[in-house]
Structure formats: structure tokens, C-alpha cells
Amino acid sequence: MITVFGEGRGFRVIWLLEEMGLAYRLRPVNLLAGVEKDAEFLAINPAGFIPAIQDGDVTMVESIAIMEYVMARYGPTPLAPSPHDPVFPAYQQFLHLGEAGLAASIYFVVGARNFAPEYERQNWSAGQALSVFESRLTLVTRQLARTSYLAGETFTAADISVTYALELAITSGGVTLSEVEHSYMARTRAREGYKRAMETCQSRKAWLAKAV
């Protein structure tokens, strides 16, 4: 039984586990209440960020690394194309772009626009982070003009990675997406694995409903 600590980016992990049909449990982590009050979680991840997982003797953090671990440990799975598959380079690129290029940059925009003092909400760093997000988004737009999913015509873990980032951008980052991205998200969010993950992640479900 894999234990997933925290929603947020942990949604990526839970969605992946649902797609693979693996047993897990979600252990909520309340960042707003302060992780310093959560000794059990800090014993798992002393850095205090989510997600983290515990799988037997294995403890890991970082959502993309966790996804790669799960697919390697419990695969093979079509969610992770073989290195010899022609779509593998695109899969690898967008799996990591979803965090390194998209979610990591929009995170700072979300923080500035939703939590900073009013006079700091349009600061230079937030503007720079938004520019980084928008430049990386052009790669997503170009790919989706060619294929239904980011690694071709088949849904992969790269789509889990990027869909999470796009949801964060439109709900909390003030980003407007094109019809290409909206159509893509309609396809990924229609998956039964996504729907089951949303039912598990009730805090995320409520947050998304409020943001609409």
C-alpha cells in the first residue's frame, strides 16, 4: 500500500496510481495550518513540502520523480513509453516540462497574486515567472497542434504532468489558454482515472470548484 502525503502536486501521483490500478491511501497535509505542527509528516519529509510517498521502506519526494519511480517499480505501463519508442523523446520532454517549465514558474505567479501584499502582487519577479511560463507554453501549443496528446496519439504520464500545471495556471495564475489547450484538457480530464483521483482529493475538488 503506497501512502501519498498531501494533495497539490500529489494529485499527479494519485492520478497516476488510479490510471495504473495500484492500491494507495491519501494522507492529508495541511500546509496552511503549518507543517511544523505535523510531526508525522516532517518525519517523512523534513523539508516540509508536498507531495511525499512512503512505499514500504522507500520514501520519496518530488512529484515527477515519484511518478517515474512508480512506473518503473510497478510497470511496465503504456503511461511510460519504452526508450525505443519513437514518441519517447517527446514523452520525456513534456513529462519534465510540466514541472520544470510550467508548474515551477506559475507557482511564483500564484503566490504573488493570491498571497502577497497588494503592492507586491505585480512585482518584477512574478512578471518574469509568468514570462517563463508563457514561453514554455508555446511548446505545448505547438505539440498539440500536431497530436492529440503530448507524446503522440496516446495518453501518457506526460499529460498528467502538464494537465496539472495548466489547471494551476488557469485557476490561480490568471492565465488564459487557447482553444487548443482547452480541448486538450477536456480530453485528459474526461478520463476515468482523473475522475477517480478527483474524488479522492476532495480539498482539490473544492478548490477547483471555487476557482471556476
UniProtKB/TrEMBL annotation:
Residues 1-78 form the GST N-terminal domain. One of its GO terms (molecular function) is transferase activity. It comes from the Bacteria. The keyword Transferase applies. CDD domains: GST_N_GTT1_like. SUPFAM superfamilies: GST C-terminal domain-like, Thioredoxin-like. Keywords: Transferase. InterPro entries: Glutathione-S-Trfase_C_sf, Glutathione_S-Trfase, Glutathione_S-Trfase_N, Thioredoxin-like_sf. Gene3D superfamilies: 1.20.1050.130. Pfam families: GST_N (PF02798). This is Glutathione S-transferase family protein. The lineage of its organism: Bacteria, Pseudomonadati, Pseudomonadota, Gammaproteobacteria, Lysobacterales.
